[in-house]
Amino acid sequence: MANCAIVGANWGDEGKGRMVDLLTEEYDVVVRFQGGGNAGHTVINEKGKFALHLLPSGIFHKGVVNVLGNGVALDPQNLLAEMRELTARGVAVSPENLKISDRAPLLLPWHRDLDELEEKRLADRKFGSTKQGIAPFYSDKYQKKTVLAGELFYPEVLRAHLRGILEWKNLILSKVYGATPYTEEMLERWIAEAAEPLKPYICDVGAYLAAAQAEGRQILFEAQLGTLRDLDYGIHPFTTSSNTLAAYAPIGAGFPGAKVERVVAVAKAYSSCVGEGPFVCELFGEEAEKLREAGAEYGAKTGRPRRVGPLDLVATRYGVAMQAATEVALTKLDVLGYLERIPVCTHYLIRGEKRSDFPFPAALAEAKPCLEYFEGWRCDISGVRRWEDLPAAARAYVEYVEKAIDCPIPYVSVGPERESIILR
Ligand code: GDP
Fold it and tell me: Is 13 annotated in the active site?
């Protein structure tokens, strides 16, 4: 057995949550290492349908310890709400199965406001933020203008620290945006209602992970979003504000020395993308509408209709390479069952040149997709559980993709339920 990261090959929403839910069976610890509550993993299991935003997907498994690492945008308000919702629905959440890094910086109440105010200022030039405060949070993290979860154990340090940040933040809120400033009383309320209840969960997760590993326990690292949203390697500036790559997992988890021997990149059998930015293979009109309907492509957090398109091999090849994926899980193959012929984007055309490599972000605006068509299988494959029982056209599609992205595809998912999986 080896440590494993489950990451997104594309723009996010590839179905990572269902893969973590499935693979958690084999692991003892599940760690979220980046991102915040701005996206959502959908998990369907015997307890029902859940949209997880911040909690690791291992939370449903008895005996699995879930960790929120220092790379996460820890939003106490959202996290508490999520914990309470799960508890109310019969899922156990306790300090035994959830551990929060004392080094996780806290997303403060004004981060959400600043997200909203900045999108409003940008008007039609907006980035399509989910307004969860993620970009203002990460900016402040790198400016060292937020507090760490562990400071809750040092109340005087915490208050002095927050007072200093409050003074600076109020200048920005009022002078730049003309917004209402925060008061110390508002912060006190936030500490008491949102932050203090998390104290029992906060600990040195680095020490915990190192000890767990020394005892032979295996760690699963769970990412949010996908390669193309990575702050450094994605479609800048339409990325998220954290690193979505597997290489970042040990750093963001709190265990920099961890080895990640397995990287499962999750890719969808077609493409979807939430928010603004270049999306070369985008479909429009009725064709898009049908695919969106078939794949139920609406945001888990926002309910926004996702942009959709055929599988983009240029982006997926890049995504798989950047993730250094050792294997790929191809999800939602069942969704393509309605198509007579299946389009695939094999290359980009940029200024008359056919390109198979993923271009520099600024060149994407000019890129046009080159499509090839595959024979559809035109039937419902959601009940299939064995590779040899898939229609020949579906097998040919998977084999073609495997070759094109140069990475084995041992998992083919044909439905959202835990058991709707074909192991090759
Ligand atoms: P994540 O953020 O990468 O976990 O992805 P999301 O949860 O946002 O999106 C995946 C969606 O597709 C969820 O609603 C899943 O329940 C669903 N899903 C995952 N795998 C499959 C599949 O193989 N077939 C179908 N039809 N739905 C799937």
Answer: yes
